[in-house]
Amino acid sequence: MIHFRGVEKHFGSFHVLKNINLAVHQGEVVVVVGPSGSGKSTLLRCINRLETITSGELTVNDIRVGDKKTDINKLRRDIGMVFQHFNLYPHKRVIDNITLAPIKALGVTKPEAERTALFYLEKVGIRDKAHAYPSQLSGGQQQRVAIARGLAMKPKIMLFDEPTSALDPEMVGEVLDVIKTLAHEGMTMVVVTHEMGFAREVADRVVFMDQGSILEEASPAEFFANPREERARVFLSRLI
Ligand code: ADP
Ligand code: MG
């Protein structure tokens, strides 16, 4: 579903992504790990063209993301993204945060959008918060709203960029559990995280990035038991 072939990305003179080759297949969960500043967020953001690649080829469902002719809105409709900071509209109730995009971008009717929103709120375990404002929710609950909002667009791919990094430790589990459930249901996902327990349990593949390159791509069993790259070993040893 997602194919990077020799992708390069520069920010001015700074070479942020170097010869990225990566394929993510339907139903796969790929977890991206690596030190801060290694290019993980940039890699993710290229997939829905929040960043443009400098060269190489990047396709999502055979659509060339970098092509000027590509309908970017259509591309983004298929890709849900959840960030570290939940980016909910503070002046809108939970349910209105979720129905906004389906009504505006997909042309879904309001009752239909609300039914869908409640369905996904149920799925993330906070249907009872539908009429609350974001400020009335805990961080973990707000992030679950953000996930429900992404799902309400019925995306084919979900991207997560450190979805639990801004949360108090006691709320990390509830958000990871939601992501785990999606994984088991076959959602195609790319997840950037520092939660190695989650990576080990949920990832089909772990991708290790450092200084803009993918240094290692392995099954979690291989990666955690016996990382091939010295820099991956150092990275893992520092986490504990
Ligand atoms: P990570 O998510 O792994 O921490 P990022 O993809 O956010 O890494 O950033 C990789 C590098 O690119 C960092 O050195 C960062 O400072 C730089 N960078 C990120 N975004 C920009 C930008 N818009 N302009 C210039 N440099 C950037
Ligand atoms: Mg990042």
What does this entry look like structurally?
By secondary structure, this protein is an alpha/beta fold. The chain is built from nine helices and ten strands. The strands form two sheets. The chain has a six-stranded mixed sheet with strand order 6-7-8-3-9-10, with helices on both faces. It has a four-stranded antiparallel sheet with strand order 2-1-4-5, covered by helices on one side. The model has no long low-confidence stretch (mean pLDDT 96). The site of magnesium ion has 3 residues, from helix 1.
Task: Give a brief outline of the structure.
With 240 residues, the protein is an alpha/beta fold. The chain has nine helices and ten strands. The structure holds adenosine-5'-diphosphate and magnesium ion.
Features:
240 residues; alpha/beta; 6-stranded mixed beta sheet; 4-stranded antiparallel beta sheet; 10 strands; binds adenosine-5'-diphosphate; binds magnesium ion
Present as ligands are: adenosine-5'-diphosphate, magnesium ion
- Summarize the helix and strand pattern as letters: EEEHEEHEHHHEHEHEEHH
* Count of alpha and pi helical runs: 9
- Determine the N-to-C terminus distance: 34 Å
Strand line-up across the major sheet: 6-7-8-3-9-10
Helix content: 25-40%
Mean pLDDT, rounded to whole units?
96
Question: Uncertain runs with pLDDT below 50, 5 residues or more?
Answer: none
Number of strands: 10
Query: What is the alpha-carbon Rg in Å?
Result: 18 Å
